[in-house]
Amino acid sequence: MESSETEGRGWAAAVTPYLQRETIGALLLGLSSGAPFAMIASTLTTRLAESGIDKKTVTAFALTFLLYNFKFLWAPLVDRVRLPLLANALGQRRAWLVLIAACTMAAIIWMGRVDPVADIGMMVAAALTVAFFGATFDIIIDAFRIDSLKPEQLGAGSGMSQYGWRLGSAGAGALALFLANRGGWDVAYAAAALFALPAVAAGFLLGEPVRRTAVLAKEKAEPFLKKVQSTFVAPLADFLTRPNAWLVLLFVVMHKIGDTLANLSLRILLADLGFDKDAIATYDVGLGLIAFLIGIFVGGIVYAKLGMMRAVMVCLILMGVSNLMFAWLATMGPVNWALAATMGFENFASGMGGVAVVAYLSWLCDLRFTATQFALLSAMSSILGRFVQGTTAGALIESLGFVQFYLLTTVLALPGILLFWLLMKREAPAPATATAPS
Asked: Taking the complete model, does pTM exceed 0.85, yes or no?
């Protein structure tokens, strides 16, 4: 009897962090973060591929994602600038959240109304606009999440954020595919734009972050030049003067290059193999979502059992191995069970990695500079992969073939694993309930 009661308390302790107001808010924020990305990632790739646009042009659209990678350049403005009137009514963080949510919705609706065959230039402009506002939305969403979570909620909050991101990405993508077959792409994108609203709901659920408000209260009396320094220089100076800062940045830049190349090219592979939109929606979006959610759950357990650093290492290895599945799928042809196995493993590994890696990046951020430092770290994590994808991936696929291309992406995962191994040797291990550095 006592054992049963102890087990019950253990389960309650494990589940409770996921039912708290802050972690539910992280879920809602993640829902909105994933949707704009999906509209210019897999959804746009499918739309362009089925329109008969050549591979080099399709892969070149990956360059629009570079706006996500350079978001740290304007993140200091989101961190420090108060929006007139709106900030007085809602608070600085919530004012930015509401404004950028509205801009993101308008940009997605516009992209849905553009015909890529009739005007590819206009489609480029629309995709860049969605990318800009989507990246800015990410800045405020990430900052709002980190500022709202207590240190002991970092692991659960990162997991819930990843749940939300994938639900938003997959939900918006699946909804767009479903409605595009029935009402056209303009209707599909307009419906997907509604996924910006959960973040606004999170803003009202959580309120203006208390810890962030306390930090800003100390800085209100700063002279103008001091404010410029604290807005643009101090966040980078704080990070770059830490021990192992350059090794951390090198790891962040390298660890996702193979994964980014593999995933941004996936829809081209599926189109070439002959999978139709229903198979993609079922196995890539639907089954992939389930596997991702399971991966997040398992990732949370691994994070708690192994601690942050070892959990990150395990997940990096799994994500590297998952690229081999794409090479195997390329040899199988349009076989549904092979697509199911590939997307199941890849999404399971990504779900696990999302918990550990996002928690690690969040842990590195100072509360004084949350938006700027997390924007820098998250942006750097995929910049190299997206640049290669947009400039040479199409030519690599045409010259190497899909099998050799995905074997190359597997090899490209190895430097990130080695760099993190070096970090584990040089840094003291962070606990599972890590607090942010001060």
From this structure: no
